[in-house]
Amino acid sequence: MSDWEPKIIAFFCNWCTYGAADLAGVSRMEYPPNIRVIRIPCSGRVSPKFILSAFREGADGVWVSGCHPGDCHYIEGNYYARRKFALFKNLLEHTGIEPGRLHFSWISSAESTKFVTVVNDVVSSVKALGPAKRMIKQDPLNTVSVTAATL
Amino acid sequence: MTQTITGAAMVIGGGIAGIQSALDLAGSGFKVYMVEKTPSIGGVMSQLDKTFPTNDCSMCIMSPKLVEVGRHPNIELITLAEVTAVRGEKGDFQVDIHQKPRYIDMSKCIACGECTKKCPKKVNDNYNAGLIKRKAIYVPYPQSVPLKYAIDGESCLYITKGKCGNCAKECPAGAINYEDKAKDFTLNVGAIILAPGFSAFNPKGMDNLSYGRHPDIMTSLEFERMLSASGPTSGHLSRISDHQEPKKIAWLQCVGSRDNNQCSNSYCSSVCCMYAIKQAIIAKEHAPYPLDCTIFFMDMRTHGKGFEACYNEAKHKHGIDFKRSRVHTVVPDNRTRELMLRNVSEDGTLRDDAYDMVILSVGLEIPEELRSLAGKLDVDLMPSGFCRTQTFSPVSTSRDGIYVCGVFQGPKDIPQSVIEAGSAAMMAGADLFQSRHTLTKRVEKPAETDIRGESPRIGVFVCHCGINISGVVDVPAVRDYARTLPNVAYVEDNLYTCSQDTQDIMTRIIREQHLNRIIVAACSPKTHEPLFQETLINAGLNKYLLEFVNIRNQDSWVHRNNPAMATAKAKDLVRMAAAKASQLESLVESRLDIDQRALVIGGGISGLSAAKALSRQGYHTSIIERFPVLGGQARKIHQTAQGEDVGEQLNDLIASVAADDNITIYNQAELTGVEGFVGNFTSTVLQNNEPITIEHGVAVIATGASEYRPDEYLYGKHPRVITGLELDERLKIKASSLQDIKSAVFIQCVGSREPGRPYCSRICCTHSVLSALHLKEINPEMNVYVLYRDIRTYGERENLYKQAREKGVIFIRYDQEHKPDVKACDDPAKKDFIDVTVTDPILGRPMSIETDLLILASAIVPNTDTNLAQFFKVPVNEDGFFVEAHVKLNPSSFATDGVFLCGMAHYPKPIDESIAQALAAASCAVTLLAKKTINTSGTVAEASPRDCAGCGTCVAVCPYGAPSMRTSGQFVGKAEINPVLCKGCGACVASCRSGALVLKGFNDGQIMSMIAAAGLR
Hints:
The structure holds 2 protein chains of 2 kinds. Chain A is of the alpha/beta class. Helix content of chain A is 44%, strand content 15%. A 4-stranded parallel beta sheet of chain A has the order 2-1-3-4, sandwiched between helices. In chain A, helix 1 (17-26) links the parallel strand 1 (8-13) and strand 2. Chain A is globular. Chain B is globular and about 105 Å long. Chain B folds into 7 domains: 1-98 and 184-198 and 366-444, FAD/NAD(P)-binding domain (3-Layer(bba) Sandwich); 101-181, Alpha-Beta Plaits (2-Layer Sandwich); 200-365, FAD/NAD(P)-binding domain; 458-558, Rossmann fold (3-Layer(aba) Sandwich); 593-704 and 863-934, 3-Layer(bba) Sandwich (FAD/NAD(P)-binding domain); 707-861, FAD/NAD(P)-binding domain (3-Layer(bba) Sandwich); 941-999, Alpha-Beta Plaits. In chain B, helix 16 (605-616) crosses helix 17 (646-658). Chain B is α/β, with parallel strands linked by helices. In chain B, strands 5-2-1-13-24 form a 5-stranded parallel beta sheet. Chains A and B meet through helix 1, strand 2, helix 2 and helix 3 of A and helix 13, helix 14, helix 15, helix 25 and helix 26 of B.
């Protein structure tokens, strides 16, 4: 288990958190290399099905980050995101996904220090939970052979 | 008038004011030369951590403007340069430029920063206000534009002594040129805009404040850098003397302002009260422990939009202590390591307060070099050094064709500088409009290849970025890996993918290899996506066929101690990009024609000025005014703060507008409806019960504000109680009644800065002081009193306050809790007189004044029109003023495209500022009109009516009104998206329950394919 590294899908809004991640680079900060960033226009673009899909594909964690509430480039997209995620996170917990696997944050494009702090938090909390097991899509061929073997 | 008008302008100074002027002018079809004396544009704003009153990050809001200037095809940046002489006249100036050597070949430098590592010479870092050192080879700050290094010729060891030469050895691009020489050349322009800024007052000469003798006594600019995340302490509060966290910080206001003794800056610097409040709030936020913040001030001047609310929050929410006292001396106590502040509190007691850090709120001043620049340009200055302008031509200098904006015109904040920048651009543009588009470049685009039906052929370009990427990530391995990915037809790696020669090679390869999707794995799309999109366009590909992979800022730079993982991450990211790229489509940008006519709502001084400006640039403009006469509030005003007669100037303005064939006036008219959107509005106006239809491409809202009718202080109940404007009416007609009065009392803040109307009305202090002076002029023996809470005669208006005190006007302060008591005299013999009782805070005792005239400095209330707000879908704040697109950098536009804002509808303001904003709003409108057509983004939502359930969620979610339900045709009741209004955020798409909406460029399939390709299992 010691060499296991979690894989985390991160959805960053183009205007704030993606900018903070860039700035962390410009400032030559360091953070663990476990996140795979998908750039989106706004955190409001993130549909719950993207998060579900990431878990289905085997992500150990998912992180969505946008602009601070009130600072959305699109006026109010992150408010919708915030409301949606608050509900969705509860629902996911209900299905057995540990709360520590799904993270939301609001990081402005100037907050590279906060960005690094949050990356570390996200990675360490996912790491503490170990590899994700729930909800992962089974390979249909394997499923068939397993079924055949049990017959 | 000269025969030929040069279709180019010069902007001197690359701070925020110069940047805005340049963008407005270049955007409206003129070539712009921007002359900046340092290696990078950005000015003082780039050094600020946050901006008041919203505490937005300064660099974040500014950097898009910096990039826009840097990339603009019609702005030529001339850095390290100064103007030495200006010959010729308006329309045809010859400007002599002296440009210092940079010692760097800008076409080769890729800003990797390798050179600085081995540079042995350290010099003071001006960007960080001298708190730390930088190298002799440097970029001023990481977001500099142009992002090219420069060698400080005065300190470089090689240039001064012929030793070293390390940077030339280190530079991987061969960009160092020690033989670079200064250049002198001449440029032809039709107009010139001065935006050279200011310097912060240096308090070294003020012995009593001990600045320079103790490191914990800092200027506000030095402290600003300490607060900044990009500053020397990364925003951590720390005393320079011992690196301990300060527990008690004091701000000392008016250092180098409102002071004739220790310096000769009698004016108020206008911005220091607000920046001190901002710094105190931020300092408390940065301190992870209880931090005491005290601001020592004379008058708290929070007279701008949102400022008073910020001041109240600072007091009540953040617990910042405000002490009304001018600190006499600051003495470091070497034993306790504390700084002792000797001050006299309001009740007259002498106190010594200990602090462990002292911030001097230094004022703004015009340095000697700018006075000499003005001399070279033959432009008049005020005795204070600021550029001389007139109220009714607020950005015109004494020399025709040369305009001024920003602090060089007078002390002011960022929004006011941006407003003036727009006005200056407007004035320059009006001089040059006949030569619009004569010197600008138009980029010819090759025909776009139709890739529909073609199977994806992806080209992948992996960048080494010198060693920035390849020093950590195994770039050849990533390159070879990319070859194995589905649909990838061509792969190569480049030392610098962004360099101009690589762009040419890429264009050739795209054509030769018939590539139809491109992946660039390099730095960040935030900075470089537009560059590569340009390359795609040049190769005949739709620009949306590009997918950018960030393997530098978000990979090699942040995982430098883990090259294996960084390389694995780069491969994952490239694989994800390839999965998405296979699904990319050509996107269409809708193109709209812009109706070349404008509509101005409001025929006051702002509306008239805006209309005249638009007409001067050649655009037909209609004005709607609800009253029979034009002129608005200005009709009632006697004189400006500079002593000009308002009536006279207003009549000239009205006459010129009335005589203008290009302006149609609809008076006694009301707007009853607005349809359409940017470029194509149709407004209905009701005039004499006749509906009139006006078509226009842009609209300017200038509905103004009016004087509050008080219901306090016996107003309306006693004939001798009048408002400030009512006094003006009497002054205007030189009423004989004024000569007989013995005593007059002004009460300030009537209806302002109170719970029901918390904002400061900005103009009443100056107006009352001016009126007091007029009364003293009529009868020097008259006893004139001004009862005030804070005197807010900002900028050069402070001189009026000084003059009033010299003339014997008595100023008595009162508290909100102890308002003056006003009643008619009890004595029947004196029943015409009024008794005013006020508690003097210094004496602590009530004082009674018997007066025969009481003037109420009544609040300014907006002419709130909720219909208008709804017609144009523009917001109104809780005070009833319209809300601009951005408080700092977009004060004269609305978030709704094509709708602009000026004058008192925005916030109370004097005539010069109203006119400046009218010109700025017109300038914003012209930049739009001059384009003639606009392209909307291709990244927009699209509705599939067959899948739509017609629930209307998208309509409810969208803040821009882009989705609507069809009202006719086969799919009535189903959603459709207007691509012109859609901004592409995707909120509706994520909210659609039936999957009927897609966001082009970020559709579900594309994002899902990236997730699936992320190598999660």
